[in-house]
Amino acid sequence: MRGEDTIENPKHLLRNFLSSRKWAYALSLLSIVISEFVMVQFPNLLGNFTNTLQTHHLSRAVVLHYSFLLLVVGVLYVLLYGFGQLRNGQLGRQFEYELRRRLFEHWESLSTAYFRKRSIGDLLNHALNDVRTVREALSGGLNILTNALFLLTATLIMTFRTVSPKLTLVSMIPLVFLPLFVIWWGPRIRNASRRAQEALSDMADLTEESISAIRLVKATANEHIEAHRFERRVDVIVRRQMSVFRQSAMFQSIIPFLGSISFSIALLYGGYLTITGQIHLGGFVAFTLYLAMIIQPLQQMGFVFNQFQRASASLARLEVLFSEMPDITNPENPVEVDIQGAVTVSLPKFRYPDGDRDALANVSFTAAAGETIGIVGRTGAGKTTLVNLLPRIFDPPAGSVFVDGHDVRTLRLETLREAIAYVPQDGFLFSTTIRENIGFSKENATEEEIIRAAQSASFWNEIEEFPEGLDTVVGERGVSLSGGQKQRAAIARAFLKDAPILILDDSLSAVDMNTEKRIIAAIRELRQGKTTIIIAHRLSAIRHADQILVLDDGTLLEQGTHEELLAHSGIYASMVALQEGEEALA
Ligand SMILES: Nc1ncnc2c1ncn2[C@@H]1O[C@H](COP(=O)(O)OP(=O)(O)OP(=O)(O)O)[C@@H](O)[C@H]1O
């Protein structure tokens, strides 16, 4: 499983990425450095030009010479800096893609219980905003930092060597305080940024929920309530983002402020040195140009430090996500079996990880391979819970659920799940074509197989009438299909898988009686020799089962065939009487 891979930590991932691309980075950073090296010749050239002007040796040839040199400086700068920036940008995008891919793989490895704890909006915000913040720091941030650091160092060296060491050192005194500001301010920006991202997650959550529930919201004319809830969350975001902007703006302005003090000192002291003849006028001109050149990198450095602080907050948030380990994993030494489909449950009790009471207690039954089991019971009786334990969607206690005599916890997860076709209660559809939705359960399924599955699910006639047929796009989560059509698409998907065990969790609730009859007939024919578990509220769907389990409040109250249970005159018999009465009335 991917969770065992130590690389699944965004900081490791970042380190590994940087080290695997070290030459690519070296090349792009080097081209930025060379571009700046070329650029710092600019003030020096102008300084020399001024000195030549002052000594009255200016000729046409000299003017042409300097103009040409300046042009070369400009062109080289653009080419080299452009290349470095482009490469860094590309590398940053590669990292962004890699980080998102890992995040997605990591989520896929986690169990259902995890997704009950985290909301979709929050997860999306991590995948979009946090990952983007890290990428921005990695590409743009790194460009600017390299640029600024080099420009600063090169300028200092140039002024130190070509103008005056004394003047350079004195002018730099205010910049010594820079690291102190970074240390003091950094955590504040990180904190504010984390809180702003949390508020964004919150809003993404509400947006996702409101859009998913748009039919309900509109049908109940509750738009104003939703709008009000949205406004309140946006207010929180704005407040928190304002705090980030405040902190960032103050932080960013401190650095140029220190630069301005340096500038004033330089002008004052440099002017004095020029007047007293200790440096040339050309040197002084070059020095002021150099200082003008470092004001921008200083401003940029403020921006980059800021960006790094935010990226660090986002990395920390991502780290929390990645640190979540899958709680349902493969056993160390899985039993290798070719699953036939016999199911045995001997469950003293089962409680959900976050549940405060047992969802199931004392449930035991055995189904030979090829049998059909019907499960009935009131809503909340534990029917879904029971069937969820088979494919280990939730983990049953050790020694309580067996397939072909093997504890499901000892089987390889992929082997177990490949042997089970499961139509969950909501029969989830992806926002793609009907063909892909049905074909999802079998890689490289042929058109004939898909059509046959749709026919068995009594869905083919309707698909044929759609203008696009199998290529009809079903909209997000199948919005453009009716409830019954969605259910039948999900059933067709399960038929196509043709697994040794089929579980239908109340999957016929939205189809009419006649369609139900046809689907049940298809199940009886297709599933001969294969185990089928049907949860149903309408008892006609399970009447034919080899064994019917009646659950109530998490316990198994009755068990037997339809005839046996009728003869027993218990809950099942009264449920049958009730439903038959309702049907007669209808
Ligand atoms: N993931 C979960 N975490 C905690 N409790 C849960 C979870 N899923 C279900 N429950 C609880 O377990 C009990 C049984 O729920 P279950 O969904 O199995 O009932 P059901 O018989 O399938 O009901 P229905 O016919 O309405 O689908 C309920 O009390 C429910 O609140």
* CATH hierarchy class name of the largest domain: Mainly Alpha
Q: What portion of residues is helical?
A: 55-70%
**What structural class is derived from the secondary structure elements?**
alpha/beta
Number of domains: 2
Number of helices: 20
What proportion strand? 5-15%
Strand order of the largest sheet: 6-7-8-3-9-10
Task: Fill in the CATH topology of the largest domain.
Answer: ABC transporter transmembrane region fold
**Can you give the mean pLDDT?**
85
Q: Name every ligand kind in the structure.
A: adenosine-5'-triphosphate
| Span of the ends, CA to CA | 53 Å
Largest sheet: 6 strands, mixed
SS elements, strand count: 10
Q: Can you tell me the CATH superfamily of the largest domain? A: ABC transporter type 1, transmembrane domain
- Residue stretches low in confidence (pLDDT < 50, at least 5 long) are 1-7
Secondary-structure element pattern, one letter each: HHHHHHHHHHHEEEHEEHEHHHHEHEEEHH
